[in-house]
Amino acid sequence: xxxxxxxxxxxxxxxxxxxxxxxxxxxxxxxxxxxxxxxxxxxxxxxxxxxxxxxxxxxxxxxxxxxxxxxxxxxxxxxxxxxxxxxxxxxxxxxxxxxxxxxxxxxxxxxxxxxxxxxxxxxxxxxxxxxxxxxxxxxxxxxxxxxxxxxxxxxxxxxxxxxxxxxxxxxxxxxxxxxxxxxxxxxxxxxxxxxxxxxxxxxxxxxxxxxxxxxxxxxxxxxxxxxxxxxxxxxxxxxxxxxxxxxxxxxxxxxxxxxxxxxxxxxxxxxxxxxxxxxxxxxxxxxxxxxxxxxxxxxxxxxxxxxxxxxxxxxxxxxxxxxxxxxxxxxxxxxxxxxxxxxxxxxxxxxxxxxxxxxxxxxxxxxxxxxxxxxxxxxxxxxxxxxxxxxxxxxxxxxxxxxxxxxxxxxxxxxxxxxxxxxxxxxxxxxxxxxxxxxxxxxxxxxxxxxxxxxxxxxxxxxxxxxxxxxxxxxxxxxxxxxxxxxxxxxxxxxxxxxxxxxxxxxxxxxxxxxxxxxxxxxxxxxxxxxxxxxxxxxxxxxxxxxxxxxxxxxxxxxxxxxxxxxxxxxxxxxxxxxxxxxxxxxxxxxxxxxxxxxxxxxxxxxxxxxxxxxx
Amino acid sequence: xxxxxxxxxxxxxxxxxxxxxxxxxxxxxxxxxxxxxxxxxxxxxxxxxxxxxxxxxxxxxxxxxxxxxxxxxxxxxxxxxxxxxxxxxxxxxxxxxxxxxxxxxxxxxxxxxxxxxxxxxxxxxxxxxxxxxxxxxxxxxxxxxxxxxxxxxxxxxxxxxxxxxxxxxxxxxxxxxxxxxxxxxxxxxxxxxxxxxxxxxxxxxxxxxxxxxxxxxxxxxxxxxxxxxxxxxxxxxxxxxxxxxxxxxxxxxxxxxxxxxxxxxxxxxxxxxxxxxxxxxxxxxxxxxxxxxxxxxxxxxxxxxxxxxxxxxxxxxxxxxxxxxxxxxxxxxxxxxxxxxxxxxxxxxxxxxxxxxxxxxxxxxxxxxxxxxxxxxxxxxxxxxxxxxxxxxxxxxxxxxxxxxxxxxxxxxxxxxxxxxxxxxxxxxxxxxxxxxxxxxxxxxxxxxxxxxxxxxxxxxxxxxxxxxxxxxxxxxxxxxxxxxxxxxxxxxxxxxxxxxxxxxxxxxxxxxxxxxxxxxxxxxxxxxxxxxxxxxxxxxxxxxxxxxxxxxxxxxxxxxxxxxxxxxxxxxxxxxxxxxxxxxxxxxxxxxxxxxxxxxxxxxxxxxxxxxxxx
Lengths: 616, 616
Fold this sequence. Notes:
Two copies of one chain form a homodimer. Chain A is of the alpha/beta class. Chain A is 37% helix and 11% strand. Chain A has helices at 3-6, 25-40, 75-89, 137-150, 174-184, 199-202, 213-229, 255-266, 296-301, 331-335, 362-372, 398-410, 416-428, 432-453, 508-515, 525-528, 543-566, 574-604; strands at residues 45-50, 58-63, 66-71, 97-98, 104-108, 128-129, 132-133, 154-156, 190-195, 235-238, 272-276, 312-317, 341-346, 379-383, 490-491, 531-532. In chain A, a hairpin with a 2-residue loop joins strand 2 (58-63) and strand 3 (66-71). The longest helix of chain A is centred in the C-terminal third of the chain and has 31 residues, at 574-604. Chain A is globular and about 70 Å long. The A-B interface holds A 286-287, 465, 470-474, 476-477, 485-489, 591, 594-595, 598-599, 601-605, 615-616 and B 286-287, 465, 470-474, 476-477, 486-489, 591, 594-595, 598-599, 601-605, 615-616.
């Protein structure tokens, strides 16, 4: 048996491999249910009844010792997984009709066809290798089960930076793409592909101008071919005019014109066009203080609000920068009221520990949905943390983020602690006090990472080449628009109306909270303000002392995490992986603590008030 | 005609491709002479007379309008090239017997068999591709002519970091290696290969312990095979116990034991064993202030002085760090009186502009030979700057460094200005005032680069990932032992007896000069001392102001270089390359100037005394 087969994560109870015989979610629902009931010996009578009008919804009802799962074609599969979870956890069965909050619940994979994954921390691609599709069908079905079990319904299979030959996924590679779609269809998972805006040039056209009729014809024909081969294709994802990718700007067209042209091609087939709003000047001169990267997306897109077609989704990263540990929710997510919006999260722990350091994301997502308001978006996406590692996610705990993401996508009012506890209990089946201990460790893990790396909104003090480890001045003179401006007096960028004006992109009630350092939450302080080291914070400490304290505290808490984990009876192979990665995390935390404190000590010249060791 | 054929550099006068018919340097000497005389129509009568006892030496004598070149088998070829140079330059013919100062004049190529070159800035490998030998024989012969014309007699063909399959060069790839040796033999160029100290493990032995008889037997047999295939093989080059390469330390043996074991295997065949002394702790903790990387090589090797066999050459980089713009000569080169030593230079402009920025090295070499004393070494080596680019060296001016290196290897008393002028005149054939202008620009080029990058001995403020461009704190918290310790008060490491003690590795007369900041040459000031920004220098300026001034001056001088070059009538394709690279150099110089000045301004808080723009 190869390693990945042994790792079922939170789906431990599903001991039989998903059958290749099942062709639809309804068939898969029956298969999963029957096998679970047989294996668990729970003795309940459970029936399934499909009501196509319910689509993804389901309802579980009990009567006379029998249980009935009623749902749409895909709903019944979600219902089965929900039932199994409740039974495994010993909980009462979910009540009422359950309907996902967001109809599009996407995982975006940054897989390249050479088998590498951009920002992948769990091994190589599960379905690409050597510039071709290459996978074990069994593994794809297990993936499908995981995605369906988490409630995810769209999988974008290739990197938004579309390199050759991935540009041919909707062309010469379409049959292979369709074969993968077939494997995932029984799990209610539809494919999406990332496309290159300049694709018409690859097919012999001289232009990719969205207002050129030959170009829109090209895309219409392409869509026709794609949906002919894959009738339930979810849509296309596009990164355009971003970090050197081609886009409509080259032809003097707006992003609305670019996106709408593509959207019209997909419209007849019910496809959506997901347009990424991750656009900024990635060749900024650090000397230029008029340009402030967080302002970029709002400045570009807000004037276009209302101009996008109804099958365009504008996909916006959660914060205005780029998946940093602590960013306020993007003003674009708050301020576009006449556009279908999607929020992009990132399960891949690019800046958050790379699946070496533990970082459970539900508390961060709770905050983001609260800051944004769940009704602001109609879709959610998350960059995948999956790969060919035996445990699928590199660190066993990273699978929590996949599971929890799906829960938030169904219900953005999800309570972080509840979802973490459920995942912990399902995955390890510990007794209650151990589960509680693991839950509280995971609940704290993001804050711990934040404390030893980048507290108070201090972003971008990370190694530029790999986005792991401390390098406080590494980004300072580069082209990325990511500066802290630390000097002997203070640190941060003034983003109030007196500074770059970024804060003015928020509606008044949010703006007022952030624009005054006295009311701005500590966690965002240096995101919005430039302050001197002797600035006195709400708790009476100076800014500098708080930076020192947070870093010392972060490391101490990481040490405590290590001690806690050391005493927990994880099964192998998880135990070994957890221990080995925790050692690396501690080394990383120690480096962050000392480097950051030394950095600010060298600038400020002020010793730690508590006399702890800061290297000179 | 492919591009490289059009580029003859300073050998413009040799218009006919070297003949494949010539099998020996004597035959090649005759071929080159006859073809030159025919093509140039100079009408002189020139004879060649071989005196095998003269080996590499030659003497040119004139009588009755006739010229006689008398020399050893290789000496006559050098004599022919010397004659041609003199005739081309309109100089009088060289007088007396000419004998190279160093019998081993090596070029070390860091070529990998996949075709890449570590620290290569002129394209891919000339002889490797796709894990195999792959070359045009004509191009190898042209390379041979260049090397012989420069006076170089050994070519080490593979990276000192020996990756697979290059480990098989003395094994299964030996026949291919021999074929390359055959091509270069007519130019008096002998091959050397870099070998992996742990090679016995690849061949099934369980150990590479130098005191294990099976291991020494293995090497003896290997040497026997190698010299059987290539009887004039020069020797082996080894990087051991350095930057994660295997070595004798793994078996508790000294470097003398490791080197001597290998040397004994080569001894019967007249081979030399070149042992690199580039050994230091490359996993240093930046918090550790007791360890000072420049001390490492002397501490390790000086106690072994006198213990190396006489066919071992200890090859030492010119400075104690690693090819930085300005380092004092390595104390190891000065302090090993009972060991055959070799000095390693670097034509590849790893830290000196990467063959984009202009950096003519003769003035640096003049200084190094003067600091060291030419008699201290018996061999010289230089890391290659060659590659598959049409002009061989990326920047046309980089070929000067190859040419001049050979001249220094023949005569370390070479005058930098003379050698630069000769190269300039030979290469471009301008009239005298243009040649003078180019000569003085090249003479200044290293100083200009130093001023805008790293004046005053300020090393390692360069991008760690690629060694190009400003990144003043990039190395500061890494594992490489390369720190500047800049803070709000000052910068530098105290390497006097009160500090790390590095200066004590030098003999008294050198030590005395460096250990007092009042007598230490400005160029080395921050190499040896930690000083506050308000330290008053010999010329009355503060250290900080001097840092600012040097960076402003460096950029201004670079601008003047650009203006000078713009007015010079370089032929194509040189003109285009020179112009394009000069633009990049200017951008690089501007970035260095502003980043470095801003860096120190943010620490010191002190403005420029002359009110020039320093970004905040």
